Amino acid sequence: MKEQLGRLEAQFFAYAQMRRMRTVSRGDLSGSMLRLTxxxxxxxxxxxxxxxxxxxxxxxxxxVPPRLPLGGAWTPDETLAINTLVADRQGxxxxxxxxxxxxxxxxxxxxxxxxxxxNRISGDRAIGAVNLTLIKVADERLGETDEQKTADDETAxxxxxxxxxFDAVYDWSRFGSLPRAYDWIRxxxxxxxxxxxxxxxxxxxxxxxxxxxRIGALLDREGVDQRQLRRLSxxxxxxxxxxxxxxxxxxxxxxxxxxxxxxxxxx
Length: 267
Fold this sequence. Notes:
- The chain folds into 3 domains: about 5-65; about 80-160, no CATH class; about 165-260, no CATH class.
- The chain is about 40% helix and about 15% strand.
- It has helices spanning about 5-20, 40-50, 80-90, 95-105, 160-170, 170-175, 180-190, 195-205, 210-220, 225-235, and strands at about 25, 55-60, 60-65, 95, 115-120, 125, 130-135, 145-150, 155-160, 245, 255, 260.
- A hairpin with a 2-residue loop joins β2 (about 55-60) and β3.
- The longest helix has 13 residues, at about 5-20.
- The model has no long low-confidence stretch (mean pLDDT about 95).
């Protein structure tokens, strides 16, 4: 952080705080009382970003702290960072994977980055000290969410509990969540935190054939009502090649012909 603000930097923060600006875009300062040329504006914002006094969201867009940090660099919180980035692209998102696993108590490990499905951006981003992994999906793959208000009055959008369990099976290769997710589903069914009908509905809406097979087989073994199971099995043709219940393990075990599953959970 700069030990002492220059005259222009001090004027910038006084102006931003007076106007209660949360973001500054390229061009916002050229017509202001600061009367900066485009080149002066660009250099000022670049200096402030390098000094970690503002956070670069993308080229030409910066987050500004509500007050000047004392004695250290400033970084936005995670919710402000992702909300600003996605809103700038007029998109939607939902926090998923390891962050949702931790939120619902499935995993005690606190992720060092935010994972989010969204309909605009793909890849890794950094905004201040916030690291994001953005997974671009089609609009119709977003849904089943739960909102959480932060102390700063921002709204974080998470995948719901049931959607998180589904994602742990559907996106197992990305999140490394099988076979642990099967135990999470069993525990939530037993505790009635998730209803079988809810999990079936989400699986039918968002699932592929492999996910329908695996969740159907699991629910069948857990004694779920056959009416719910038939909703899943009707989406399947008679499988010719059974898939492993736990991907990546040897296909050794009994074969469930109804679901086309090799029961290799204990291999």
